[in-house]
Design goal:
Strand order of the largest sheet of chain A: 2-1-3-4-5-11
CATH topology of chain B: OB fold (Dihydrolipoamide Acetyltransferase, E2P)
Largest sheet of chain B: 5 strands, mixed, barrel
Oligomer: heterodimer
Strand content of chain A: 15-25%
CATH superfamily of chain B: Envelope glycoprotein gp160, DUF2291, alpha/beta domain
Number of strands of chain B: 6
Structural class of chain A: alpha/beta
Strand order of the largest sheet of chain B: 2-3-4-6-5
Order of helices and strands of chain B: HHHEHHEEEHHEHE
Mean pLDDT of chain B: 90
Largest interface: A-B, 42 and 38 residues
Chain lengths: ~325, ~210
């Protein structure tokens, strides 16, 4: 009899654990809760993305909570575990890694929670319900054309890359190089990742300036790095010799373009994407399930000539 | 009693295997998609797409004369009837085919009139490097939703641009002379209506001499 108990206890426990969800103990979602998972809040652009998503979700009647993944897929995974355990109804997701974040989206999908990606892509067309993605490649084609127009067809330049695991990093770099590499007189003398981070952008730019003092321009994969690079140029007294190009449409960079300090950026419209993602989540919860797997959001070039049309992370 | 113990053990293992399976079944389509992504060759894809899908689809493109007429009459109506948008943006594309007459030909640009009296530059073909997504997105034959990784989708754009630049632009450069009637097809992106409609900036798919209209 004692032996039977030894076997029976874990068996009963396993049965209870296995059938709990079917009994409705863990799958009934808590009403009106949307989670917003953001790659990092250490960058004003993503703060705007998260705040706008939260504001729109709140307007639509949901209790919205922002989770910061701190550019770490492990933290992101823990965030998803907490969200699934707390039975949120939808996740608005700005991933940290195009490949590494797929598992988290799939985990939520298996738990019956729809995932709507914002700005950054995951390499799957069946993990997220829909992905609203900035068309970084096309935006950087425009930026590359403007780069050639303003820098000219001759000269050395450097490039600051974003996170190497993020598709946006490579879509931006490849879009830019699809244009600039066609002009052999323009030579990229250094290319290094600064992780989309302002402090790292400053640090990397400082060392690049020491190694390559004669550069004419720097192309940065986002505006935080462009701000860091500009700060390094200011410190070195080279801000009038080296042209800075960013990407994002961050307010501080748009202001510096208006002041003639930075050449150009690509406006990504974070508020538009965040609002649309929150509305998609609301529509899903109310019964709509037919969403396009990916929705590109065009990027507009912001330059000295048209900067008056832009501000507050969008077009005026 | 032994039988009961075995039954409990088997039940326990069955529940474990059901709740935490040792393997997962994947849909064949997902596996195929993963394999395709791993093997993707944008140059090869673009060449096959150009020959097997893009050129055969020219009869479905907007007639050049009708499109130019519509743009001149009412750009918003023209966009509604002939334009194609991708995603949430204000940019849009035209996919057109027809005949026209070369009205100017320089080292940098060839201009073509599509409507009588064949004097206005309705279309412009830039001679030089081809950039952008007009060929990929203009025809509506390719969708980003078919590509798990957008880098592959963007690589197609660059490969299609390369085909236009290496296969069609040499024809434009060598044949274009003022007064020549041509059969042409291509895609145009409209980013800013104040500058991109008159003329339409055409990325050519086809350019060849034709009988006078």
């Amino acid at each position: 009899m004692k032996n039977i108990h030894l076997f029976a206890c874990p068996a009963v426990l396993a049965l209870v654990l296995a059938f709990l969800p079917l009994a409705g103990f863990s799958q009934s979602p808590a009403p009106n809760r949307i989670a917003i998972v953001v790659s990092t809040l250490n960058n004003p652009w993503f703060v705007v993305l998260a705040d706008t998503a939260k504001q729109r979700a709140t307007e639509l009647g949901y209790d919205a909570t922002v989770f910061d993944s701190q550019n770490d897929t492990a933290k992101e995974s823990a965030n998803f575990d907490n969200i699934i355990a707390a039975h949120y109804q939808a996740i608005l997701f700005n991933p940290t890694d195009a490949s590494g974040s797929v598992a988290n989206a799939l985990k939520a999908k298996r738990a019956g929670i729809p995932v709507f990606c914002i700005d950054r892509e995951i390499n799957s067309t069946n993990a997220a319900t829909s992905q609203l993605l900035s068309d970084s490649y096309a935006g950087c084609v425009k930026l590359g054309r403007y780069f050639v127009k303003t820098v000219g067809r001759q000269g050395d330049y450097v490039e600051l890359l974003g996170l190497v695991g993020d598709n946006n990093t490579w879509n931006r770099s490849k879009g830019f190089h699809s244009v600039v590499d066609r002009f052999p007189g323009l030579k990229m003398v250094a290319q290094q990742s600064a992780d989309f981070d302002r402090a790292k952008g400053l640090e990397v730019m400082e060392s690049m300036l020491q190694a390559h003092p004669d550069i004419k321009a720097v192309f940065c994969g986002n505006d935080a790095m462009a701000m860091g690079a500009y700060q390094a140029l200011l410190t070195a007294g080279r801000e009038n010799q080296v042209k800075v190009f960013g990407f994002d449409g961050a307010d501080d960079v748009v202001r510096l373009i208006a002041a003639g300090k930075i050449e150009a950026t690509g406006m990504q419209f974070p508020k538009l994407m965040a609002r649309q993602a929150a509305e998609f989540a609301d529509e899903y919860i109310k019964g709509r399930h037919d969403f396009p797997a990916k929705i590109p959001v065009p990027v507009e070039l912001v330059t000295h000539e048209n900067v008056s049309q832009f501000g507050d992370y969008g077009k005026k | 009693m032994r039988l009961v113990r075995w039954l409990i053990l088997v039940l326990f293992l069955a529940v474990l295997a059901w709740r935490w399976p040792l393997f997962h079944l994947l849909p064949l389509q997902a596996v195929r998609q993963q394999k395709m992504a791993a093997l993707f060759d944008p140059g090869q894809f673009a060449a096959k797409f150009w020959k097997d899908r893009l050129l055969p689809s020219l009869p479905a493109a907007a007639p050049a004369g009708s499109l130019i007429q519509a743009i001149q009459t009412d750009p918003a109506a023209a966009r509604k009837k002939f334009g194609r948008s991708v995603g949430l943006g204000a940019d849009y594309f035209y996919f057109l085919s027809g005949t026209g007459k070369v009205v100017s030909a320089t080292a940098d640009q060839v201009s073509i009139a599509c409507l009588p009296p064949y004097t206005n530059a309705d279309l412009a073909i830039a001679i030089g490097p081809v950039f952008g997504d007009a060929l990929r997105d203009g025809s509506g034959l390719l969708s980003i939703n078919d590509y798990p990784n957008s880098q592959d989708f963007n690589a197609i754009s660059a490969a299609l641009d390369h085909l236009s630049e290496t296969q069609v632009l040499p024809e434009v450069k060598s044949q274009a002379r003022v007064g020549l009637t041509v059969r042409l097809a291509g895609c145009a992106e409209v980013d800013d209506e104040s500058t991109d409609l008159r003329p339409l900036n055409l990325v050519p798919i086809l350019f060849e001499a034709a009988p006078t209209p």
